[in-house]
Every structure is written in structure tokens, then in C-alpha cells.
Amino acid sequence: MSFVRTILGDVAPASLGVVDAHDHLIRVGAGEVYLDPDHQLDSVEKAVAEARRFVAAARAWAPVGGTVVDMCPIDCGRDLDKLAQVARAVDGLRVIAATGFHRQQVYLETQSHWISRYPVERIAELVLADIRQGIDRHDYAGPIIERTAHRAGVIKIATSYGTITAFERKCAEAAAAAALESGCPINTHTTAGTCGLEQAQLLIGLGVPADQIAIGHIQRNADLYVLRQILETGVYLEIDGTARIKYQPDANRIMALRELGRLGHGDRLLLGTDSGKRSYQKAYGATTGVDYNPAVDGPRLLAEGFERAYVEQLLMTNAQRFFSFRREA
Ligand SMILES: [Zn+2]
């Protein structure tokens, strides 16, 4: 019997409702916040407001509500006590938390980081413990490990702009080992849509089943030829970056969803918003936020002539299948 691992327990895939496959409700400090304080999402109250809007919009599609996949990985500001407070406060919300790694730059000075010091096998054990036992209350940022009751339900890996560094390759090796051991899916970060194909090839080469890999933020490379090449390896694509006009209009996203669906790849596309900054969330004063897919994007897809069944697949069923563990973890 397949299941999805949320931070408040394992659930049946269909109970996820609308799934936001890559987003951020809580992030407290660490590298990204140091690089840009706009990344600081430390308010439970604001995260609750954002999640409530998302669930209200999700209920127009699924009476059960929705699920946010919080893609903050190891030593990047995870705070499971806060995230669990959010999950408990919002009726109809489920939250999946991540383990795994961000791109090298986020770890600032990496030579002295434990990721550089420990062997891959020991790092894989830490990833696995997040999945099986509970995420460290201190986010593996210090020598004392104190496990919460909240287990990770997805593994992240990430790569830099146009390159996969030795540090990132090591992280991918540890992530792949933990994924194989636990049956947990891997959802990735590409930087500006680069290295998507290389990520797929790397993880598949390490033995991860293609259909347990989603290549993330890939809409940043709105090049259908490239997207098709990646899909032909058997992986999923995770498409987010909604209302991010400084990069590209949403019309590109609509175009990709339409064309990839027409080409028969519609069952391997996931939608996120990646509203991982204060300036991307309504609760902090922005005009868009975590509710974007069910509130704005779904209705727009219908208005632009998409079949309702396809839109439901994009908002719900593809992700319900993807985030299911492959076996007993
Ligand atoms: Zn993100």
C-alpha cells in the first residue's frame, strides 16, 4: 500500500488534494537568508495566513484541501517545530518536508562544512534518519542532534548555474543512496533551468528510478526541445516560478503545459509556485503567493481551453502519485 510521508504522519496519496510541489512556508536563517534577507520566512502567523489562502483555493478543486511541499533542505533554515505549528493550525492542510541538499553557493564557505568532511555513506545515513526517524530540530547545523517527530517525505538535490560542482555531485550521491534505501522521491533544484538533463542522467546513473525523480524550476528554460529531452529519460518535470514576470511571463508556462500535454507527457508534470521569498507572498504584502496554482493558474488553464481532466491531473493526481513512497520506508 503506497503512502505519502507528511510531517504529521503517513497518509494515503489521494488525501493530498491539490499539491503545491515546490514551495516554502518556513525558513529561519542560514545561507539563503544571509545572501538575501528576503528569504527569511520566520513567521508562523504569516505562514498560517498563506497556507489558509492556499487551502481555501484548493477546496474549489478538492474538498480535502491541499498539500504544500516545503522544499527547504538540510542546513538551509528548516524549523520543524514552526512548520508543524503551521500544519496543525490550518484545517485541510498537509505539509511534506524535505531532506537533502541545496546548491553549493547556499552553504557559503563549503570547505569546512561537514558535507565536505564526512564520507558519502555517513551523509546518506543522515538523510535517511531524517526520513525514518525525524528531522533534526537544529537542522544539522550543529553537533547536537535532537530528532523531532516530523519525518521528511522528499529528498532535494541541487546544482549550480551551468555546472554540477564536486560538492553537489557528492550531495547527489548521498541523496540517491538514501532514496534507494527508503523508496523516497527526489525533487530537484536547477539554477535558472540549467543542468536539468544532467541531473536526470546523474540520478538515473546512481540507480534512482526515473519516475521517482522530478527536475525542478525547469520552466526557467522555456525550451520545449530541451524539456522533451529531459522527459524522454522517464523523469517528471516540476514547473513553478509563477507570476515571476522579471524572468518570464506565465504565458510560457501555459505554452509548455499545453505542448507537453499534446506530446503525451502530461502525466509527468508537477506544479509548484516556489514562493520562497517575502516579496512572493501575500502574507508579507505581495500580490501573489502560495495559493497561485489553485486560485489563478488552474482557472486560467480552463479559460485558455485546457481540458478539466488535464488540469486536475496537473494540480492533483500527478503529484499524488509522484510523492508516494515506493515501498515501506
Ligand atoms: Zn524553492
Give a written overview of the molecule:
It is a single chain. The chain has 329 residues and is α/β, with parallel strands linked by helices. It has a single domain (4-322), classed as Metal-dependent hydrolases (TIM Barrel). Helices cover 37% and strands 13% of the residues. It has helices at residues 31-35, 44-58, 80-89, 114-117, 120-132, 166-182, 196-205, 224-231, 250-262, 292-303, 308-322; strands at residues 4-6, 9-11, 18-23, 66-70, 93-100, 154-158, 186-189, 213-215, 236-239, 269-271. It has an eight-stranded parallel sheet with strand order 3-4-5-6-7-8-9-10. Strands 1-2 form a two-stranded antiparallel sheet. Helix 5 packs across helix 6 (166-182) and helix 10 (292-303) runs antiparallel to helix 11. The mean pLDDT is 97. It binds zinc ion (ZN). Zinc ion binds at residues 22, 24, 71, 274, 276.
Task: Detail the topology: elements first, then pairings.
Elements: E1 4-6, E2 9-11, E3 18-23, H1 31-35, H2 44-58, E4 66-70, H3 80-89, E5 93-100, H4 114-117, H5 120-132, E6 154-158, H6 166-182, E7 186-189, H7 196-205, E8 213-215, H8 224-231, E9 236-239, H9 250-262, E10 269-271, H10 292-303, H11 308-322
Parallel strand pairs: 3-4, 4-5, 5-6, 6-7, 7-8, 8-9, 9-10
Antiparallel strand pairs: 1-2
Helix pairs in contact: 2-3, 5-6, 10-11
Bound molecules: zinc ion.
